[in-house]
């Protein structure tokens, strides 16, 4: 069809005008979306772990659990106090050191975090917890197992994992009752975690009818254990228990076998890692350890969580990521129920928690301990930890 040239020019101008209006509208929509994103209230969640040093593999694992939960919650487009929320994880390196942990805690307070997930170790968590208590900031631990943590009378401290007294009881019952070991030597690293765990294990061994024939100690930075192991060898133990972490446990079991000590080797959750298997090599085979929680394969949400975790971080779960993920969810769900990220408003909601998490059902007793915490037992076979006893609810701490 023929159109006069003037008509074509007019049509082109109109088309350009329309496109310009459409582009302007699109730009305005994008600007509005960006503004809405900018207008989101940032809720800071502190994540405290050792991110450097011999326990960094634990710390990064725990920190990643917090990050994954926070990212998912942000993607849900939640609103608190009628405003959209973005959850921001503030990660700090406490180096698993009590003094550094208190400095980290004060920085969190100054940074006005709404809550804290951590610290990884009992020795760091306990001194830091007073600072959070004084500031009224909720603290949920996914790995702190010392009974002292929830015996301070603070209303802001919670844990979603069984404690060391419960682990000690389960390990002693297994060592004396199931393995029929009666001459037991104990070593600990003098930390709040290691010594407390060893003390609870020793009491439970005696209560179960076994005998502690030797107590020795080291530090959480030691690498040479030959002197204390030589002392232990003379007592002819049939089981050696270590209260401490994998960084020392691996070299210790190698030196133990080098000395010709054939006794069983046992630890708790600090030893139940792939890192221990790597450090101990063939000498670690057959070792026993516990976990202050259910086996991964029996956790109701582990399979889906594991897939998400690997996709996000391109890493295998070390130990506590499922627990710190759940701890973060507990924190955020309490905020949702309270309709606020103000610690004074949502803290009471944490105590009322009834949540099915990745790790299982989560609820708290009046002290902040998880109700019906589980302890599981494992043996290292062909470089992999395999469950050796059916997990059961741990007996209540006395």
UniProtKB/TrEMBL annotation:
Q: Where is the Leucine-binding protein domain?
A: 43-383
Q: Sorted alphabetically, which keywords does the UniProt record give?
A: Signal
Keyword Glycosyltransferase on this protein? no
| Classification via Gene3D superfamilies | 3.40.50.2300
Q: Which CDD domains match?
A: PBP1_ABC_LIVBP-like
Signal sequence, start to end? 1-24
Report the family membership: Belongs to the leucine-binding protein family.
Q: Name the chain's protein.
A: Branched-chain amino acid ABC transporter, amino acid-binding protein
């Amino acid at each position: 069809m023929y159109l006069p040239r003037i008509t074509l020019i007019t049509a082109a101008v109109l088309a350009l005008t329309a496109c310009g209006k459409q582009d302007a509208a699109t730009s305005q929509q994008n600007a509005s979306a960006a503004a809405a994103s900018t207008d989101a209230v940032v809720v800071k969640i502190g994540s405290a772990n050792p991110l450097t040093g011999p326990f960094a593999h634990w710390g990064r694992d725990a920190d990643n659990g917090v990050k994954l939960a926070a990212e998912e919650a942000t993607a849900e487009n939640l609103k608190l106090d009628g405003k959209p929320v973005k959850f921001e994880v503030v990660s700090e390196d406490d180096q698993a050191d009590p003094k550094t942990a208190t400095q980290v805690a004060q920085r969190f307070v100054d940074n006005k975090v709404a809550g804290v997930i951590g610290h990884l170790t009992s020795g760091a968590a306990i001194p830091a917890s007073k600072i959070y208590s004084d500031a009224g900031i909720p603290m949920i631990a996914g790995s702190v197992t010392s009974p002292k943590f929830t015996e301070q009378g603070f209303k802001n401290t919670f844990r979603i994992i069984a404690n060391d007294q419960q682990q000690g009881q389960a390990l002693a019952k297994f060592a004396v009752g199931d393995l029929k070991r009666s001459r037991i030597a104990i070593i600990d690293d003098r930390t709040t975690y290691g010594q407390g765990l060893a003390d609870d294990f020793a009491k439970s061994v005696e209560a179960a009818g076994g005998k502690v024939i030797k107590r020795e100690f080291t530090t959480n930075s030691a690498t040479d254990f030959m002197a204390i192991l030589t002392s232990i060898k003379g007592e002819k133990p049939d089981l050696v228990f270590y209260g401490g972490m994998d960084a020392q446990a691996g070299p210790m079991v190698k030196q133990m076998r080098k000395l010709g000590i054939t006794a069983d080797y046992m630890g708790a959750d600090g030893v139940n890692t792939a890192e221990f298997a790597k450090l101990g090599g063939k000498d670690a085979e057959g070792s026993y350890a516990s976990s202050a929680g259910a086996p991964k394969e029996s956790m109701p949400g582990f399979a889906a969580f594991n897939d998400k975790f690997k996709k996000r971080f391109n890493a295998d779960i070390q130990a506590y990521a499922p627990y710190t993920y759940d701890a973060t969810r507990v924190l955020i769900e309490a905020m949702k129920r309270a309709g606020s990220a103000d610690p004074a408003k949502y803290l009471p909601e944490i105590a009322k928690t009834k949540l099915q998490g990745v790790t299982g059902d989560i609820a708290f007793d009046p002290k902040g301990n998880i109700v019906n915490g589980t302890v599981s037992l494992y043996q290292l076979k062909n470089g992999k930890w395999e469950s050796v006893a059916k997990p059961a609810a741990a007996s209540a701490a006395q």
